[in-house]
Amino acid sequence: MRDRGIILAGLAVFLGLITFPAWYNLARGATSKGPELKLPATEKQCVAPTLYMRRSHMELLVNWREQVVREGNRTYRTPDGRIYPVSLTGACLVRCHIVKADFCDRCHSYAAVKGPYCWDCHVDPKLVRRNAP
Amino acid sequence: MKITRTGFFRLTGLATLAQAGRKLRAAAAPKRWAMVVDAQKCLRDRGCTKCLQACHRAHNVPQFRERNHQIAWIWKEPFERAFPSQRSAYTAETFKDKPVLVLCNHCDNPPCVRVCPTRATWKRADGLVMMDWHRCIGCRYCVAACPYGSRSFNWVDPRPRIAELNADFPTRTQGVVEKCTFCEERLARGQAPACVEACPDKALVFGNLADPASEVRKLLRGRYSIRRKPELGTQPQVFYIV
Amino acid sequence: MFMLEKAVVGSRKYWLWILALAVVIGLGKLAYLHQLRTGLGVTGLSRDVSWGLYIAQFTFLVGVAASAVMVVLPYYLHDFKVFAKITILGEFLAISAVTMCMLFVFVDMGQPTRVLNVLLHPTPNSIMFWDFVSLGGYLLLNAVIALVTLSSERQGVAPPAWIKPVILLSIPWAISIHTVTAFLYSGLPGRSLWLTAILAPRFLAAAFSAGPALLILLCLAIRKLTRFDPGKEPIQKLALIVTYAMLINVFFVAMEFFTAFYSQLPEHLEHFHYLLAGLEGSATLVPWMWVSMILALISLPLLIVPKARRNEKVLAATCGVVFVSLWIDKGLILIVGGFVPSPLGAVTAYTPTLPEVAITLAIWAVGALMITVFYKIALSVREGLAAA
After folding, report:
1. Paired sense of beta strands B74-78 and B99-103, if any
2. Using the beta-carbon criterion (under 8 Å), do C344 and B140 form an inter-chain contact?
3. DSSP state of B87
4. Do A123 and B172 touch (CB under 8 A)?
5. Of C38, C105, C110, which has the smallest distance from its Cβ to B153's Cβ?
6. How far off is chain A from B155, nearest CA to CA, in Å?
7. Which residues neighbour A88 within 8 Å (Cβ) at sequence distance 6 or greater?
8. d(CA C29, CA A23)
9. B20: enclosing H helix or E strand
10. For chain A, what is the radius of gyration of the CA atoms?
11. How would you classify residue B175: left for phi > 0, otherwise alpha for psi between -120 and 50, otherwise beta?
12. How is chain B split into domains, by residue range?
């Protein structure tokens, strides 16, 4: 085995390269802690349980959309009796998650969710000076 | 005043029932929304565009200089163009070449609803011809079907052409068709459509045709009215008092 | 199974042709990406003329796709053996044409990513829904028929018995795809140029002229470029079909003229005025209208006189004239003309833009590519059998 040295050296280089992400992040001190969300100041309860919202808020929003647009029903009642207007921009972003960048965008950018094309049409109220009704 | 517990509950119970009954009756009573345009009143100030501005501002309707890409929910057309079957060399001076308000007629028998392949436009029970901008695929079949030219397509991204964004109403994206919705979102709040509210001469009257005591019914009973292209059988719900 | 290996073996000319098509397709793809990003505003379409070149091509090509029935019906229903060798060519033409139709509809949509909404929210009162169904079904039918018959021919056996009812189904289905497409237009109360009962028959007559005319040209090209000779008789029979169909088509158009001009109804007359002489100074379609009519009239004696029809050189030119005349008529004239004047009496000119033309040419190139590959496969199979 004349080439033992070269082979071992090559293997070492390969292993080093392939484990690069792991030891580079360790050295940098980066963690997989995840996005840091700024929770609403006053409201403590969401329209639905946190676990459900984390997994399925998209589903809730789509149901809300169909409810308002196609059925004209603009009232949402939670199982424990709280009533909310059915509107992302008119309820969620006004009563609780006032700054979209502090909450919604945090997870969306962490997970590289390019997607919600909602904002192609719906207007973030924070971006526009609200005119008096 | 002194009241027993029983008496209190009886009172509040009856009051609640009465309120519920009133609400139920109102909900069950059918609504047929319609609009009456008093063309005589509207023509008093030829240059007035308050209704157009109110509508387009409330609904983030973009303003295009290029005629080809124009989007309008309500606008003015010369009389002979709004009512081509009434074309004549001897039209009364009041109307000859004069601008008339045109908008979606929310027809009772709408050809646009008949042709939409996804029901992105549909007729609601209360008479509104609705738009669902989430479902529209932009095929523009409804634009071809509308005999009044009431519908506009978003040929490009509308956002840059909106002077002042109204956060209370969404914009639309490129690639979908839009039109007047009789201010469905305002009706849900119990308000009149934006154009009706904005008119300084009260030339636009909006109301429930199913209610014989409504202002629209009173107007139509007392004054002669015409509709656009009635021979097509579309049953438009926008009436013009001429 | 698809015998695609037959399509990757070819002469230098073959590969140059494929390369040229690929370039056209590539340029069109870039133009389409531009249209996706900026919106359909990159086309010449407008608030008044909301359908143009894309839908015009779609309308014309549905006719070409339906015309396969003109070879399938005589052969499979009436045992007309003359068409035995060219039914496969007709079916492949149908597949390519239907694919082009679907592509043209796709590039015309404002929100193409939502196209599946038509199937997710089926709406039976909408003719467009039925158009989707009928075109998709026709594509499937012809793909299955072509595959099964060609495979059987290659293996030297008769096709399986179950393919016969499938083939027979494709006959009324072919008629229906073009009737449904005509219904898209002929049921709209506000568009007087289209609101005529004769629109569907007119579409079919034009389809059965333009389609077989194209098939004749393809057969003549095949004879020149490959070792396969479709034979004189099938081409002559096709020419006879083109003759009668074109006569009926011109007759139908004359009927339209009579109703409009004798009744003097403004809604009808206005469209004809715009097409024949222009309105309010706008006359974009006038030269196209006259060219289409003159070409159609020129083609008639060339088709009717047997000596002219039997001369294959003259026939080739005549088929070209028929194809171009009907392409202009069914495409530009009928579709764009229906929008001018608008319901409010506005006269808006329509001129396709460069991206629009690039995308259109690219889709035609896709169709040409499909036909090239399909015919290469079919004819290689036949050459292989002949050699054996």
Report:
1. antiparallel
2. no
3. -
4. no
5. C110
6. 15
7. A61, A64, A118, A122
8. 44
9. helix B5-28
10. 24
11. left
12. 29-241
DSSP-derived 3-state class of residue C348: coil
Domain chopping of chain C, boundaries: 1-186+353-388, 190-204+229-349
> Nearest CA of chain B to the CA of A76: how many Å?
15
We find that the CATH architecture of domain B29-241 is 2-Layer Sandwich (3.30)
* Length of chain B in terms of residues written: 242
Number of CB atoms found within 10 A of residue C80's CB = 15
CB contact under 8 A, B167 and A89: yes
**Whole-angstrom Cα distance, residue B103 to residue B193?**
13
Residue B177: helix, strand or coil by DSSP? strand
d(CA C249, CA C255): 10
pLDDT at A131 over 50: no
Rounded Cα–Cα distance for residues B166 and B114 (Å): 32
**Series of mean pLDDT values for 10-residue runs along chain C (388 residues):** 81 94 98 97 97 97 94 91 92 96 97 95 96 96 93 92 94 96 96 96 96 96 90 95 97 96 94 95 95 97 96 96 97 93 95 97 98 93 84
What residues in B contact C339, CB-CB < 8 Å? 144
What one-character-per-residue DSSP string does C219-237 give?
Answer: HHHHHHHSS----HHHHHH
User: Over the stretch B155-169, which tens digit does the pLDDT of each residue have?
Assistant: 999 999 999 999 899
CB of B134 less than 8 A from some CB of A:
yes
Show which of residues 13-42 on chain A sit within 8 Å of chain B, judged by CB atoms.
none
Q: Indicate yes or no: CB of A128 within 8 angstroms of CB of B60.
A: no
Interchain contact, A65 vs B134, CB within 8 Å: yes
Of B81, B137, B152, the CB nearest to C47: B152
Helix axes C199-225, C354-387, angle to 10 degrees: 50
Question: Does the distance separating the beta carbons of A130 and B167 come in below 8 Å?
Answer: yes
Q: How far apart are alpha carbons C335 and C184 in whole angstroms?
A: 11
Closest among B80, B2, B52, B81 to B193, alpha carbons compared: B52
Q: Which residue of B has its CA nearest to C133?
A: B117
Q: Which residues of B83-111 are buried (b: 16+ CB within 10 A; e: fewer)?
A: bbeeeeeeeeeebeebbbbbbbbbbbebb
Output the pTM of the full model: 0.90
Distance, CA of C52 to CA of C41 (rounded, Å) = 12
B49 close to B42: Cβ distance less than 8 angstroms: no
Residue ranges of alpha helices (H) inside chain C are 12-38, 53-66, 69-72, 78, 87-108, 117-120, 127-155, 163-186, 199-225, 232-263, 266-276, 286-304, 306-310, 312-326, 337-338, 354-387
Residues of C in contact with B148 (CB under 8 A): 190, 343-344
The helix-helix angle for C312-326 and C286-304 (nearest 10°) equals: 150
DSSP state of C84: T
B170/A contact by beta carbon, under 8 A:
yes
Does residue B18 have a pLDDT over 80? no
Determine whether the interchain pair A128/B165 forms a contact, defined as Cβ–Cβ distance below 8 Å: yes
- Picking from A70, A130, A133, the nearest residue to B132 by CB comes out as A70
Residue A54 or residue B12, greater confidence: A54
User: If you measure CA to CA, which chain B residue comes closest to C111?
Assistant: B137
Single out the residue of A61, A120, B103 nearest to residue C114, CA to CA: A120
